[in-house]
Amino acid sequence: MTPPDFPTPSADSDLALVERANAGDTRAFELLVIKYQRRIERLVGRMVRDVDLVQDITQETFIRAYKALHQFRGEAQFYTWLYRIAVNTAKKALMEMRRSPVISESALNAGGDEDETSGLAQELTTQETPETVLAAQEIAEAVSAAMEALPEDLRQAVTLREIEGLSYEEISQAMDCPIGTVRSRIFRAREAISARVKPLLERQSGKRW
């Protein structure tokens, strides 16, 4: 009897690149860095105000990831695994500097990255007139302020869902908590943001969050 065929990772998949990197192919890890560097930079940028730290923390994240690469087994998405390393690295840097993690305003207004950061603020208005552009800016500022005020666990959960576009299962893996907890955190975060944003929406066109 011939053994059953099992799916193998494609040559350019994250798992295949990890396997190649673990086998000594440094170019494979470079490809992973190229693929995820900008997303990690944006993630770190949401946790620290000091833009000078973003590059340092991002670089340290990939150094740590490379050293721990042999521990990645593919049970979770590579970005989910890398996300946890980035968050822990940023937290460590902030603790050393005795700072508190905060979300930066640029998280919701990152020029040139509208395709990946439009989840919260930019979907609230669709017609671009001078009035709606100003209204969208007011809404973005309100959302940013509301997210800054969230507890860290709620902020991380809603950021991963609305800005990073991760599934509930991926967020559960990234935050190391049950899916039910993820849903609860996202619901509470949305409620808090809604309380801040809804008056602006009602003033404009009767839209609801």
UniProtKB/TrEMBL annotation:
Keywords for this protein: DNA-binding, Sigma factor, Transcription, Transcription regulation
RNA polymerase sigma-70 region domain residues: 32-95
Domain RNA polymerase sigma factor 70 region 4 type: residue ranges: 141-192
Domain of life per record: Bacteria
Pfam families (UniProt xref): Sigma70_r2, Sigma70_r4_2
Record NCBIfam families: RpoE_Sigma70 (TIGR02939), sigma70-ECF (TIGR02937)
Protein name, per record: RNA polymerase sigma factor
Organism field: Comamonas guangdongensis
